[in-house]
Amino acid sequence: MPNGITLTIDNNYTVNSHLFACDEMWAGIIVEAGGNLIIDGNKNNEKIGTLIEHAETAVTNQNAASMKISFITFNHNKTAIEMIPGTYNTANNFIYGTHFLCSNWQMTKGPLAGQFLNNIY
After folding, report:
1. Do 81 and 56 contact (CB within 8 A), yes or no?
2. What are phi and psi of 114, to 5 degrees?
3. What are the angstrom distances between the C-alpha of 73 and each of 5, 85, 86, 87, 97?
4. pLDDT at 87
């Protein structure tokens, strides 16, 4: 998201968004300086909100104006969230009710398919 642009990934109160790769891992969402990211998942029963999978880095914060993440599950990502040190304002960023995991302890999309977490560089 470039300066002044907001990406909102929302829910409709019963169905959450699911971002994933088809064949190979995808680069992820990059929030550049001045950009905004809002991911608002909805907690349905025992499932936690929006699902983001198979990214090299699911979300990268490069001095975002704001980054608000709530009720998300990050699964099978090499890196879930990267906060570039010294480039973000903590007053405008939050992560709430979020799960970070790699089900089955193994990556499922190329080029890391079949690798276990402790073998990934």
Report:
1. no
2. 85, -10
3. 24, 23, 26, 24, 9
4. 60
Q: Tell me: the pLDDT tens digits for 54-103?
A: 988 999 988 888 899 988 899 888 889 998 876 666 677 888 888 888 87
Task: State how far the Cα of 1 lies from the Cα of 59, in Å rounded to an integer.
Answer: 11
Contacts of 48 (CB under 8 A, 6+ apart): 41, 71, 72, 73, 97, 98, 99
Write down the mean pLDDT value for the chain. Answer: 82
Return d(Cα 92, Cα 66) in angstroms, integer: 5
N- to C-terminal Cα distance for the chain? 27
Do residues 15 and 41 lie in contact, with contact meaning Cβ atoms separated by under 8 Å?
A: no
Angle at the Cα of 93 from the Cα atoms of 73 and 27, rounded to 5 degrees: 50
CA distance 41 to 80: 16
* Half-sphere exposure in the Cβ direction for 32 (13 Å, CA): 5
